[in-house]
Structure formats: structure tokens, C-alpha cells
Design goal:
66% of the residues lie in helices and 0% in strands. With 116 residues, it is mainly α. The chain folds into two domains: 70 residues, Orthogonal Bundle (434 Repressor (Amino-terminal Domain)); 30 residues.
Length: 116
């Protein structure tokens, strides 16, 4: 599940809205909304993001946070290592190979290290 998907699900469930109902109200299929929540469909379009914010009555800072989560939640990313050092390229490749094997503790350690 992506950060965006987890947040949407939490907001929907906190409001007692069934996935099928929210999907119908937004004009998307329940399969699509489920895939979006689980991170299988990439980022939503800007228009859908705005409709979700309106539907869930999300405004200002919360809407900006949701937009940022959507930007960060693309399930497939590409790292352009052109012009970087060989060590940076090695790091990107090693991370892409091993990220699925890292537990939450290791992921938190890496995030903390990278964020300084």
C-alpha cells in the first residue's frame, strides 16, 4: 500500500464510507479505487485528486498533504543516474534490488540517514 492509498483508506474508513459507495460517488469503479488504495494504479490524476478532496471535505493543509502523498506514491519510479558518480549509481541499483527485502526498521534507518 502506498502512503497515498493508506491515507485515502484511513480517511474513508474514519468517515464510515464504504469503498463501493465512494467509488460510485466519484464516478470510478470500485476496482479502480481499491487498486488506488493498494498502490496498484499509480498516482491519481489531478482532477481525481481534487474530486477526492472535495468528496472527503479536505481543505488547505490537509489537501496539500494529500497531494504530496499522491506525488510520492507512484509505485514505479525511475532514478536518473546520468552524470552521477559510480558510487551513486551503485547505490541506486543496490537499493532497487534489495528494497523489497528490507523490514520497516531498516527502512526507517535509511530514511533517517538520508534525511539527515
Amino acid at each position: 500500500m502506498t502512503p497515498f492509498g493508506a491515507r485515502i483508506r484511513a480517511l474513508r474508513e474514519a468517515r464510515g464510507i464504504a469503498l463501493k459507495q465512494m467509488a460510485a460517488d466519484l464516478g470510478v469503479s470500485s476496482a479502480y479505487l481499491s487498486a488506488l488504495e493498494h498502490g496498484h494504479r499509480g498516482r491519481p490524476s489531478w482532477l481525481l485528486l481534487q474530486r477526492i478532496c472535495g468528496y472527503l471535505n479536505i481543505i488547505w493543509d490537509d489537501a496539500e498533504e494529500l497531494a504530496e502523498l499522491a506525488r510520492m506514491s507512484h509505485p514505479r519510479i525511475t532514478i536518473d543516474t546520468a552524470g552521477l558518480t559510480p558510487k551513486a549509481t551503485l547505490l541506486a541499483n543496490e537499493l532497487s534490488r534489495r528494497i523489497a527485502d528490507l523490514d520497516d526498521t531498516r527502512l526507517e534507518q535509511l530514511l533517517k540517514l538520508l534525511r539527515g
